[in-house]
Amino acid sequence: MSTVALLLTALLFGGMTLFSFGFAAVLFAVYGPDNARHGIRNTFPHYYLWVIATSAVAGAAAYPTSALAAWLLFAIALSTAYTRQMLMLQINAATDSGNAGRFKMLHGLSVAIQLAQIGMAGWALALVAG
After folding, report:
1. Pick the residue with more confidence: 50 or 29?
2. Which of 12, 31, 42, 67 reaches 20 to 30 Å from 56, CA-CA?
3. How far is CA 40 from CA 6, 48, 71, in A?
């Protein structure tokens, strides 16, 4: 089970890092701002579902090896559920209404959550690899 936990946690950490630091930059470079925004907006619901599922399964697999790693992974799943079901909708509403100030604040919050989650996934990975 520890091998499964290690692989799933590594997949989560790598996937979150690539999505956060590579995906958006490539979309903007290849498709330009308007098309990239549309692509990113349509991708996030799927990305968040992937993070929720992967972190939850990784947490269950990690529990026998490290309870702390498991709880970190479960926290990622729960905070991503909030981000997907609440925060993403608020960000989209701010964008649609042209409220740039609210968008910047909410987007900043989503970035902070994502960076914290990447840090938690890295910590969990180190614990599972232990």
Report:
1. 50
2. 42
3. 29, 12, 29
